[in-house]
Amino acid sequence: MSEASEKSYSVEQRLNAWIAGGYDPVAGPPTIEDWHTLAGGLGLANLTSTHGRYRMLTNGTVEIDILLTATGAGSGTGTFANSLAAPYQPALQRSYSLQGPIAAGPARVTVVTSGAISVSMPTYASGNIFGGTIIMILD
Q1: Within 13 Å of residue 89, how many CA atoms lie on the same side as its CB?
Q2: Residue 109: closest CA among 131, 137, 83, 84
Q3: What is the pLDDT of residue 6?
Q4: DSSP structural state of residue 88
Q5: Nearest to 25 by CA among 98, 109, 85
Q6: What fold is seen in the domain 35-136?
Q7: Do strands 62-70 and 74-79 pair parallel, antiparallel, or not at all (unpaired)?
């Protein structure tokens, strides 16, 4: 990266690039790797996605960061609007738990090989918060 193009990035963007591993594997140099959005909600009643995002880390793993807030009662399984881009997709299906109040069991995040990310929610009540940061290996 040239000195001129490096100056166009904020300190925060350069720090994120150092943490995340450098360049975006889809866009390539000089695009610095940053968070990518999973966009939208999960399609579950009374459950909002405060954020759903992912990025590649320096060791070739993918960091997935999810935070969900219940605005009323519900349960079920929903899928984020955006799938992981090809360089971020796992070779095998992966499943992880989310932290939160455990009523009928933990919330589960499932990432399939096509990159779709779904969340299976136990019974939740208004004000419940579920979240977690997942480090996913790709092979």
Answers
A1: 13
A2: 131
A3: 44
A4: G
A5: 85
A6: Immunoglobulin-like (2.60.40)
A7: unpaired
